[in-house]
Specification:
- The chain is an all-alpha fold.
- The protein has one domain.
- The protein contains 3 helices and no strands.
- Helix 1 crosses helix 2.
- It is elongated and about 55 Å long.
- 2% of the residues are buried.
Length: 97
């Protein structure tokens, strides 16, 4: 891999409020369906997390497709960076980082 890019993202306070509202609403819905509150909280968190992962995956896939179509010269480097991030993540998950 040629190089890595460190990125930081500032959190939007409005998004935090939306996330809290969504978590509360989804937790309440799971409780309404009969799930114990301690499980409903985890179920709601997992549901929101999975939806966020799906969205980010779709965004990333669309970005790579756009790069391939419009910037074929840097597309291979983008794939190298993506693969490097994947490998780094796997090392972190398996405590080999």
């Amino acid at each position: 891999m040629r190089g890595t890019i460190a990125m930081t993202f500032s959190r939007n306070p409005d998004q935090d409020d939306i996330r809290k509202d969504a978590l509360l609403a989804l937790t309440s819905e799971f409780v309404r369906q009969g799930h114990p509150i301690q499980y409903a909280k985890h179920m709601a968190t997992a549901t929101i997390f999975q939806a966020d992962l799906d969205l980010r995956n779709a965004q990333f896939t669309r970005l790579l497709a756009w790069l391939k179509e419009n910037h074929d010269d840097i597309y291979p480097q983008a794939l190298e960076i993506a693969e490097g991030v994947r490998q780094e993540f796997e090392r972190r998950v398996t405590d080999d980082f």
